[in-house]
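2024-03-11 09:14:02 INFO receiving multi-entity request
2024-03-11 09:14:02 INFO entity count = two
2024-03-11 09:14:03 INFO echoing inputs for audit
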Amino acid sequence: EIVLTQSPATLSLSPGERATLSCRASQSIGTYLVWYQQKPGQAPRLLIYDASNRATGIPARFSGSGSGTDFTLTVSSLAPEDFAFYYCQQRSDWPLSFGGGTKVEIK
Amino acid sequence: EVQLVESGGDLIPPWGSLRLSCAASGFTVSNKYMAWVRQAPGKGLEWVSSVTGGGGTFYADSMKGRFIVSRDNSMNTLYLQMNSLRVEDTAVYYCARGSSSASIFDSWGQGTLVTVSS
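2024-03-11 09:21:47 INFO inference complete, emitting structure
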Protein backbone atom coordinates (compact mmCIF):
# COMPACT_ATOMS: atom_id res chain seq x y z
CA GLU A 1 0.00 0.00 0.00
CA ILE A 2 1.31 3.42 -0.99
CA VAL A 3 1.25 5.97 1.82
CA LEU A 4 1.12 9.69 0.98
CA THR A 5 2.42 12.17 3.54
CA GLN A 6 1.45 15.81 3.15
CA SER A 7 3.24 18.72 4.79
CA PRO A 8 2.78 21.01 6.46
CA ALA A 9 -0.51 20.12 8.12
CA THR A 10 -1.40 23.80 8.28
CA LEU A 11 -0.02 26.73 6.29
CA SER A 12 -0.82 30.25 7.56
CA LEU A 13 -0.41 32.86 4.86
CA SER A 14 -1.81 36.20 3.74
CA PRO A 15 -3.63 36.87 0.47
CA GLY A 16 -1.12 37.55 -2.29
CA GLU A 17 1.54 35.31 -0.77
CA ARG A 18 2.93 32.17 -2.39
CA ALA A 19 1.85 28.80 -1.04
CA THR A 20 4.00 25.70 -1.39
CA LEU A 21 2.46 22.36 -0.38
CA SER A 22 4.31 19.05 -0.30
CA CYS A 23 3.19 15.47 -0.88
CA ARG A 24 5.62 12.59 -0.42
CA ALA A 25 4.93 9.00 -1.49
CA SER A 26 6.24 5.94 0.33
CA GLN A 27 7.42 4.48 -3.01
CA SER A 28 7.83 5.76 -6.52
CA ILE A 29 4.57 6.56 -8.28
CA GLY A 30 5.99 8.13 -11.44
CA THR A 31 3.79 11.14 -12.15
CA TYR A 32 0.51 9.48 -11.12
CA LEU A 33 -0.29 12.14 -8.57
CA VAL A 34 -3.50 14.17 -8.36
CA TRP A 35 -4.35 17.28 -6.30
CA TYR A 36 -7.77 18.33 -5.03
CA GLN A 37 -9.09 21.37 -3.22
CA GLN A 38 -11.89 21.10 -0.68
CA LYS A 39 -13.77 23.85 1.12
CA PRO A 40 -15.85 23.21 4.27
CA GLY A 41 -19.20 21.65 3.48
CA GLN A 42 -18.30 21.06 -0.17
CA ALA A 43 -17.15 18.15 -2.27
CA PRO A 44 -13.52 18.07 -3.42
CA ARG A 45 -12.59 19.76 -6.69
CA LEU A 46 -9.97 18.46 -9.11
CA LEU A 47 -7.04 20.86 -9.49
CA ILE A 48 -4.04 19.06 -10.97
CA TYR A 49 -3.68 15.60 -12.49
CA ASP A 50 -0.62 13.54 -13.34
CA ALA A 51 1.55 15.81 -11.24
CA SER A 52 1.55 18.91 -13.42
CA ASN A 53 -1.55 19.16 -15.62
CA ARG A 54 -4.16 21.72 -14.63
CA ALA A 55 -7.75 20.52 -14.81
CA THR A 56 -10.30 22.37 -16.91
CA GLY A 57 -11.11 25.80 -15.54
CA ILE A 58 -8.35 25.88 -12.92
CA PRO A 59 -6.55 29.26 -12.76
CA ALA A 60 -2.95 29.49 -13.89
CA ARG A 61 -1.80 30.49 -10.37
CA PHE A 62 -2.09 26.78 -9.47
CA SER A 63 0.80 24.62 -10.62
CA GLY A 64 2.09 21.17 -9.79
CA SER A 65 5.49 19.57 -10.09
CA GLY A 66 7.43 16.49 -9.13
CA SER A 67 7.90 12.85 -9.97
CA GLY A 68 8.86 9.64 -8.23
CA THR A 69 8.21 10.25 -4.55
CA ASP A 70 8.25 14.04 -4.09
CA PHE A 71 5.56 16.38 -5.35
CA THR A 72 4.68 20.02 -4.88
CA LEU A 73 1.55 22.08 -5.37
CA THR A 74 2.24 25.80 -5.69
CA VAL A 75 -0.22 28.66 -5.58
CA SER A 76 1.73 31.63 -6.92
CA SER A 77 -0.39 34.35 -5.31
CA LEU A 78 -3.16 33.35 -2.92
CA ALA A 79 -6.61 34.68 -3.74
CA PRO A 80 -9.22 34.89 -0.96
CA GLU A 81 -11.05 31.88 -2.40
CA ASP A 82 -7.91 29.70 -2.22
CA PHE A 83 -8.00 29.32 1.57
CA ALA A 84 -9.12 25.71 1.87
CA PHE A 85 -7.93 22.15 2.39
CA TYR A 86 -5.74 20.46 -0.23
CA TYR A 87 -5.34 16.72 -0.73
CA CYS A 88 -3.05 14.67 -2.92
CA GLN A 89 -4.04 11.25 -4.29
CA GLN A 90 -1.99 8.57 -6.02
CA ARG A 91 -3.39 6.56 -8.89
CA SER A 92 -0.27 4.50 -9.54
CA ASP A 93 -1.51 1.32 -7.88
CA TRP A 94 -4.38 -0.27 -6.01
CA PRO A 95 -5.45 0.49 -3.38
CA LEU A 96 -5.76 4.15 -4.26
CA SER A 97 -4.78 6.47 -1.44
CA PHE A 98 -5.04 10.08 -0.35
CA GLY A 99 -2.69 12.16 1.72
CA GLY A 100 -3.81 13.49 5.07
CA GLY A 101 -4.32 17.00 3.72
CA THR A 102 -2.94 20.51 4.18
CA LYS A 103 -5.08 23.34 5.46
CA VAL A 104 -4.22 26.73 3.98
CA GLU A 105 -5.55 29.35 6.38
CA ILE A 106 -5.54 33.11 6.49
CA LYS A 107 -2.78 34.53 8.66
CA GLU B 1 -23.93 18.92 -17.59
CA VAL B 2 -22.38 16.16 -15.48
CA GLN B 3 -24.21 15.58 -12.21
CA LEU B 4 -23.92 12.99 -9.44
CA VAL B 5 -26.54 12.72 -6.71
CA GLU B 6 -25.99 10.38 -3.77
CA SER B 7 -28.74 9.07 -1.54
CA GLY B 8 -29.33 6.39 1.05
CA GLY B 9 -27.38 7.73 4.00
CA ASP B 10 -28.94 7.05 7.37
CA LEU B 11 -28.43 6.34 11.06
CA ILE B 12 -27.74 2.63 11.38
CA PRO B 13 -26.74 0.44 14.36
CA PRO B 14 -23.43 -1.46 14.42
CA TRP B 15 -23.49 -4.69 12.36
CA GLY B 16 -26.30 -3.28 10.23
CA SER B 17 -26.44 -2.97 6.43
CA LEU B 18 -27.13 -0.06 4.12
CA ARG B 19 -27.11 0.56 0.38
CA LEU B 20 -26.03 3.89 -1.04
CA SER B 21 -27.01 5.07 -4.50
CA CYS B 22 -25.39 7.57 -6.85
CA ALA B 23 -27.59 8.68 -9.75
CA ALA B 24 -25.59 10.03 -12.66
CA SER B 25 -26.65 12.34 -15.46
CA GLY B 26 -24.80 13.95 -18.34
CA PHE B 27 -22.68 10.84 -18.99
CA THR B 28 -22.91 7.03 -18.92
CA VAL B 29 -21.59 5.22 -15.85
CA SER B 30 -21.13 1.96 -17.77
CA ASN B 31 -17.92 3.10 -19.52
CA LYS B 32 -16.34 5.21 -16.81
CA TYR B 33 -14.17 4.59 -13.78
CA MET B 34 -16.44 5.33 -10.81
CA ALA B 35 -15.50 5.45 -7.16
CA TRP B 36 -16.72 5.91 -3.63
CA VAL B 37 -14.67 8.12 -1.32
CA ARG B 38 -15.54 8.83 2.28
CA GLN B 39 -14.73 11.49 4.83
CA ALA B 40 -15.19 10.93 8.56
CA PRO B 41 -16.25 14.00 10.55
CA GLY B 42 -13.34 16.45 10.76
CA LYS B 43 -11.01 14.06 8.92
CA GLY B 44 -9.45 13.71 5.49
CA LEU B 45 -10.52 11.86 2.37
CA GLU B 46 -10.39 8.07 2.28
CA TRP B 47 -10.81 5.99 -0.87
CA VAL B 48 -13.38 3.22 -0.41
CA SER B 49 -13.96 1.40 -3.68
CA SER B 50 -13.80 1.70 -7.45
CA VAL B 51 -15.32 0.03 -10.46
CA THR B 52 -13.55 0.33 -13.81
CA GLY B 53 -15.11 0.78 -17.22
CA GLY B 54 -14.55 -2.93 -17.84
CA GLY B 55 -16.33 -3.89 -14.62
CA GLY B 56 -13.34 -4.64 -12.44
CA THR B 57 -13.86 -3.83 -8.78
CA PHE B 58 -11.37 -2.73 -6.15
CA TYR B 59 -11.69 -2.09 -2.42
CA ALA B 60 -9.73 -0.58 0.42
CA ASP B 61 -8.47 -3.32 2.74
CA SER B 62 -10.77 -2.40 5.61
CA MET B 63 -13.83 -2.66 3.34
CA LYS B 64 -12.99 -5.94 1.61
CA GLY B 65 -15.57 -8.59 2.34
CA ARG B 66 -18.00 -6.05 3.80
CA PHE B 67 -18.69 -3.58 0.96
CA ILE B 68 -19.78 -4.31 -2.60
CA VAL B 69 -19.74 -1.77 -5.42
CA SER B 70 -22.00 -2.26 -8.41
CA ARG B 71 -23.74 -0.32 -11.12
CA ASP B 72 -27.04 -0.51 -12.97
CA ASN B 73 -26.44 0.65 -16.51
CA SER B 74 -30.18 0.90 -17.28
CA MET B 75 -30.64 3.27 -14.33
CA ASN B 76 -27.26 4.96 -14.89
CA THR B 77 -26.64 4.51 -11.18
CA LEU B 78 -23.72 3.43 -9.00
CA TYR B 79 -24.32 1.58 -5.75
CA LEU B 80 -22.41 0.74 -2.60
CA GLN B 81 -23.77 -2.12 -0.51
CA MET B 82 -22.34 -1.84 2.99
CA ASN B 83 -22.62 -4.76 5.40
CA SER B 84 -21.37 -5.42 8.93
CA LEU B 85 -21.13 -1.70 9.53
CA ARG B 86 -18.83 -0.41 12.25
CA VAL B 87 -18.80 2.81 14.24
CA GLU B 88 -15.64 3.79 12.34
CA ASP B 89 -17.58 3.65 9.04
CA THR B 90 -19.37 6.85 10.08
CA ALA B 91 -18.63 9.38 7.34
CA VAL B 92 -19.93 11.38 4.43
CA TYR B 93 -19.77 9.12 1.40
CA TYR B 94 -19.07 10.74 -1.95
CA CYS B 95 -19.34 9.17 -5.36
CA ALA B 96 -16.92 10.41 -7.99
CA ARG B 97 -16.38 10.00 -11.71
CA GLY B 98 -13.03 9.10 -13.16
CA SER B 99 -11.76 11.10 -16.10
CA SER B 100 -10.48 9.46 -19.27
CA SER B 101 -10.76 5.90 -17.95
CA ALA B 102 -8.51 6.69 -15.05
CA SER B 103 -8.73 7.33 -11.35
CA ILE B 104 -8.64 11.09 -11.78
CA PHE B 105 -11.87 12.21 -10.17
CA ASP B 106 -13.20 15.18 -12.10
CA SER B 107 -16.79 15.22 -10.87
CA TRP B 108 -18.15 14.58 -7.39
CA GLY B 109 -21.55 14.33 -5.79
CA GLN B 110 -22.57 16.35 -2.78
CA GLY B 111 -22.21 13.35 -0.44
CA THR B 112 -24.53 11.39 1.80
CA LEU B 113 -24.02 10.96 5.54
CA VAL B 114 -23.83 7.51 7.09
CA THR B 115 -23.88 7.41 10.88
CA VAL B 116 -23.20 4.09 12.60
CA SER B 117 -24.25 4.24 16.23
CA SER B 118 -26.26 2.30 18.75
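2024-03-11 09:21:48 INFO post-check: Chain B touches chain A through 23 residues (CB under 8 Å).
2024-03-11 09:21:48 INFO post-check: The mean pLDDT of chain B is 96.
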